Amino acid sequence: MLSLENIYLELEVEERKIPILSDINLTFEAGKMYALTGPNGSGKSSVARVAMGIYRQTTGKVIYNGEEISTLGISERARKGIGYAFQHPPRFKGMPVKDMLELAFKYSDGYNCQVLRDIGLCPDDYLERTLDNSLSGGEIKRIEIATLLAQNPKVRIFDEPEAGIDLWSFEQLIDVIGSSHREDTTTVIISHQEKILNMVDEIVLIRGGTVNMRGGREEIWPQIKESAACSCRQDCRLEEEIYADCPR
């Protein structure tokens, strides 16, 4: 179980401290799938990065299986069983795909090329290729997800797995993420995609750096759609008012 308790985060930008998250209290239980959703810039990825240790919270605690891990770095959290797939994966010039997978499999004591086949890539075509600009954004994205599957962490965080992925690959990746989820696994997916929101157990709506809503998908998803529709109607009315005063 992974918990974020009273998380407040501010980041320094051009010598100014900018508040990013405020009063975040979330618990992610084993056996459940969660979706973090919300407007762009609302703080969804920041919540995930605090959980992974990429961002160090200004105040608050991160608890994993009863142990406070607030001061641990990314590698230490990975060893404990927390894994993260970036929205925009880094590229590693000169590193072959097989070396990246070997590093990931050290966490799960095994090696199996099936993880590449699962995400739609032929091992014979990709194991010797390097993680550089010769790979497309979609290929890099799929390889990173394969790496996370190889790591086999107890807590899996996917930051917008659909980003840069074509429709066919997206359908396949979602099936892989869903089918690889187990009773002892916690899966957290940052996404706007309705198909993802409909496959999870709970939806967490982040807005303005705080938890705006949280609950089962049957309860929360209709509220999110209604909220989005209201915002759209308000924007349309505002646009009509602005243009009403403009000369034609």
In short:
The protein is an alpha/beta fold and 248 residues long. The chain has helices at 44-52, 74-80, 97-105, 114-118, 123-126, 137-151, 167-180, 194-197, 217-244, and strands at residues 2-13, 16-28, 33-37, 59-64, 67-68, 82-85, 92-96, 130-131, 155-159, 186-190, 202-207, 210-216. Strand 9, helix 7 (167-180) and strand 10 (186-190) form a beta-alpha-beta unit.
Characteristics of this structure?
248 residues, 6-stranded mixed beta sheet, 9 helices, disordered C terminus, 38% helix, alpha/beta, Rossmann fold, 4-stranded antiparallel beta sheet
Please provide a written account of the structure:
It is a single chain. The radius of gyration is 20 Å and the shape is globular. It is an alpha/beta fold. The C terminus is likely disordered. Helix 3 runs parallel beside helix 6. It has one domain: P-loop containing nucleotide triphosphate hydrolases (Rossmann fold). It has 9 helices and 12 strands. The strands form 3 sheets. The protein has a 6-stranded mixed beta sheet with strand order 6-9-10-3-11-12, sandwiched between helices. The protein has a 4-stranded antiparallel beta sheet with strand order 2-1-4-5, covered by helices on one side. A two-stranded antiparallel ribbon has the order 7-8.
